[in-house]
Amino acid sequence: MCDLRRPAAGGMMDLAYVCEWEKWSKSTHCPSVPLACAWSCRNLIAFTMDLRSDDQDLTRMIHILDTEHPWDLHSIPSEHHEAITCLEWDQSGSRLLSATPEPSCPSATPQLPLSCP
Question: Which domain of life is it from (predicted)?
């Protein structure tokens, strides 16, 4: 056991706060598919999560977090039918592309021109 009271700059340090996390079994919190995440040059973090409702419907969500305001989480339901395997920000850090293994090409929008082979 460690002694938490150690001399520091001519005084003693006391433990001020302890955060104890609930221990979960691995099967309850590990996803069945890997989650995708991406960090933009604007310090925005995007990550995926699958949500299952009480009636077993699966919704694939994309969450966007501003690291300067982490309490403002923006969640967007995706229209993907398969697990999202890739998230990628553009160079400006303002547009996010999500991809799945399913072979499809989303329709182009004025905000995000796309081209498919």
Answer: Eukaryota
Residues 6 or more apart in contact with residue 95 via CB below 8 angstroms: 89, 111, 112
C-alpha 9: how far from its chain's center?
Answer: 40
Q: Is 20 left (phi over 0), alpha (psi -120 to 50) or beta?
A: beta
pTM listed for this prediction: 0.59
C-alpha distance from residue 61 to each of 10, 32, 100 (Å)? 52, 15, 13
What tens digit of pLDDT does each residue of 12-68 get? 777 777 777 676 555 444 456 678 999 999 999 999 887 776 666 777 889 999 999
> How far apart (Å, rounded) are the C-alpha atoms in residues 83 and 52?
13
Residue 117 to residue 105: CA distance in whole angstroms? 9
Residue 97: which of 31, 22, 38 has the closest Cα? 38
Number of Cβ within a 10 Å radius of residue 4: 10
Determine the Cα–Cα distance for residues 74 and 70; give it in Å rounded to an integer: 10
